[in-house]
Design brief:
By secondary structure, this protein is of the alpha/beta class. The chain has a single domain, classed as Alpha-Beta Complex (Spore Coat Polysaccharide Biosynthesis Protein SpsA, Chain A), CATH 3.90.550.10. It is 30% helix and 22% strand. It contains 6 helices and 11 strands. The strands form 3 sheets. It has a 7-stranded mixed beta sheet with strand order 5-4-1-6-10-7-11, with helices on both faces. A two-stranded antiparallel ribbon has the order 2-3. Strands 8-9 form a two-stranded antiparallel ribbon. A hairpin with a 2-residue loop joins β2 and β3. The longest helix has 15 residues. The model has no long low-confidence stretch (mean pLDDT 89).
């Protein structure tokens, strides 16, 4: 059983009430909720939140769902001590799994972490990622995008390149974590209490999927991309 977990705490430094911020006429979190509910490979979805607004929103969405909602959707309340700015996402995952075991006792095979800050990720991406995960027998996997960046530390030291022997950008074989999809086998979770194991597979997405919503500028960029792709908005 593949359990989708969507972390959606209240509060954000970059955007006030970020997970409910409007994008394309809908709350930001709805783009991830839609992708998760439409993904054939997700069996059950849990939103973990400390926000009464998000809790109510998710409950109302499920209460008034129509036929395109193919799987159960629930919201679990997250204690405030697990929802601080510096609270690890792994603590929220662990809390969900503990509650799941107490409430349902059903076996979870894989955890699929879907962050609301990646609204351009679709059900198709989730299904393809899980297909790769299972066919290649990964124990953990993360989504990435190609990166052609020359990175430097603030002390003027280059990271992973030699300034005097700079490769052509198209020759650079490196990837950037984009935060859209993480898949974790439960054996890895029990061993590491982490979404990633000792060696993780990569699911490579298109470069536009680099966008993560952290600032008002990111929201404007997402609006522009959705308009450019002619994605229907409500």
């Amino acid at each position: 059983m593949n359990l989708g977990i969507i972390p959606a705490r209240a509060g954000s430094k970059g955007i006030k009430n970020k997970n409910m911020a409007p994008l394309g006429g809908r709350p930001l979190i709805d783009w991830t909720l839609q992708a998760a509910t439409e993904a054939r490979s997700i069996d059950h979805i849990i939103v973990t939140t400390n926000s009464p607004e998000i809790m109510g929103h998710v409950t109302e969405m499920w209460k008034h769902h129509d036929d395109h909602w193919l799987k159960p959707l629930e919201a679990y309340w997250r204690p405030d001590d697990l929802a601080q700015d510096d609270s690890p996402t792994e603590d929220a995952i662990g809390h969900v799994l503990h509650q799941w075991a107490e409430k349902r006792g059903e076996t979870v095979d894989n955890v699929v972490l879907l962050q609301p800050t990646s609204p351009l990720r679709t059900a198709g991406h989730i299904d393809e990622a899980l297909d790769h995960f299972e066919s290649r027998r990964y124990s953990s996997m993360l989504s990435v995008v190609p990166s052609h960046a020359f990175l430097w530390r603030d002390c003027g030291v280059p990271i992973a390149h030699q300034p005097r022997f700079r490769p052509m950008r198209q020759e650079m074989d490196q990837y950037e974590e984009n935060g859209a999809i993480y898949i974790t086998d439960m054996e890895v979770w029990r061993k590491h209490h982490n979404r990633l194991g000792d060696s993780s597979g990569l699911y490579v997405m298109d470069e536009e999927q680099r966008l993560q919503i952290d600032t008002p500028f990111d929201l404007k960029m997402a609006e522009a991309i959705l308009s450019w792709k002619s994605v229907p908005v409500s």
